[in-house]
Design brief:
Blueprint: E1 4-9, H1 17-30, E2 34-38, H2 42-45, H3 65-71, E3 75-78, H4 80-84, H5 105-117, E4 122-127, H6 129-140, E5 144-149, H7 165-186, E6 190-194, H8 201-210, E7 214-216, H9 224-236, E8 243-247, H10 259-265, H11 278-288, E9 295-298, H12 310-329, E10 334-339, E11 342-347, H13 348-353, H14 360-368
Parallel strand pairs: 1-2, 1-4, 4-5, 5-10, 6-8, 6-9, 7-8
Antiparallel strand pairs: 2-3, 10-11
Length: about 375
């Protein structure tokens, strides 16, 4: 194993990423390893910002202080003292990006060669499924990788939880509680849109935590009429401030409906190339529910930039420790997860092939209550 461990954060930022980096640095340095942070995800692997010419390196041990200084736009040494100030902070101080080039084999080989030339043959990758695919590519090109799940979406099937998911749910819960308060004050139904990409876990857990009366997730087909009927039933029962939680990307599963014509017929301007939004949904429900003043709120990036919960920071600590132990034992090309409350690891390839499951029964229960 290399005496230098690289670590990068990739894809969408997630609360707990900093804590994971700090955990890896702490445990690795306690065992005598040097740790370097690779900035901007796989952009840093490709040395995009430093433009450092690795072809001049004949022996990585001969790299000078000036060489490492020249690399700093992409790669920087991490010490316990340097990273300590980021403990508990949201975001990722290593920065992150989605590197389109890294899906191509040519750039995967360039990245692996760059790391090897610098003496970095072991890398910890913190991110979601796209980041895992990048780690798999590096592994196939001779770089030992261990992955830590860092994504608010919780869409990695092999693990029960990912870094940032708990924080995102708590952020959404606070937002819904605040929206509910003003909804009750004004007797207005509310729609709250949460993130999660193509996974409805954030929406499901937020709905359960806040007692939301209705839920739309990207896994299930739905139609506007059924939700208008549900909202009308709530209003008839005296609940004039019912809440609908909708996940992003849900409109792809909406049954065909000429929503543009309905809005235009009611004096609302809509362009032919305009996609439906949560604001349009609020307008449609207002029309279908006797003029009920439905209001829409999009929680947005506060879900990704929130202060990590204790749960996420503790997971990050455990994941970082496990990652270093795996690298030290030579158990590489692995990803780390949690199942039944216990941290475990499995092959990256196997994890990526696992199909996601969705609890349809729980979804229907939420919408029936």
């Amino acid at each position: 194993m290399s005496k230098i461990i690289g670590i990068l954060t990739s894809g969408g930022d997630a609360p707990g990423m900093n804590a994971a980096v700090i955990s890896v640095v702490s445990f690795a340095r306690s065992k005598g390893y040097k740790v370097v942070g690779i900035k901007g995800g796989y952009d840093g692997v490709l040395l995009k910002d430093s433009k450092f010419d690795v072809s001049k390196i004949s022996d990585p041990e001969q790299l000078t202080e000036a060489d490492w200084k020249a690399l700093e736009p992409d790669i920087v040494e991490l010490t316990a003292r340097k990273v300590r100030e980021y403990l508990g902070q949201p975001g990722t101080f290593l920065h992150t990006a989605r590197c389109d080039e890294f899906v191509q084999e040519e750039y995967q080989k360039i990245g692996a060669n760059n790391l090897r030339a610098l003496g970095i043959t072991s890398v910890v990758v913190v991110g979601g499924d796209g980041s895992y695919k990048g780690a798999r590519a590096l592994s196939r090109n001779g770089i030992s990788c261990v992955c830590i799940p860092g994504t608010i979406d919780n869409d990695l099937a092999y693990t029960e939880a990912t870094l940032g998911y708990d924080t995102a749910v708590n952020t959404c819960m606070d937002a819904v509680i605040a929206v509910k308060a003003t909804s009750r004050s004004h007797d207005r139904p509310a729609i709250v849109q949460v993130m999660g990409r193509h996974c409805g876990d954030i929406g499901m857990r937020t709905a359960m935590a806040t007692g939301a009366e209705m839920l739309i997730v990207p896994e299930m087909e739905w139609d506007i009429d059924s939700y208008a009927a549900r909202l009308n039933r709530q209003i008839e029962r005296g609940n004039t401030s019912a809440t609908l939680i909708i996940c992003e990307n849900c409109f792809a599963k909406m049954k065909p409906f000429d929503w543009r014509t309905m809005l235009r017929d009611n004096g609302i301007k809509v362009y032919d190339d305009e996609d439906i939004t949560v604001e349009h949904l609020a307008q449609l429900l207002k029309i279908k529910c006797g003029g009920a003043e439905v209001r829409a709120t999009v929680v947005g990036y506060t879900q990704r930039g929130g202060l990590p919960t204790a749960c996420d920071n503790v997971l990050a600590f455990q994941f970082g420790r496990h990652a270093v132990e795996l690298l030290e034992k030579g158990q590489t090309n692995q990803c780390i997860g949690v199942r039944d409350g216990k941290v475990f690891n499995m092959a990256i390839e196997e994890a990526l092939e696992m199909p996601r499951t969705f609890d349809e029964e729980l979804y229907h229960i939420i919408n029936r209550l």
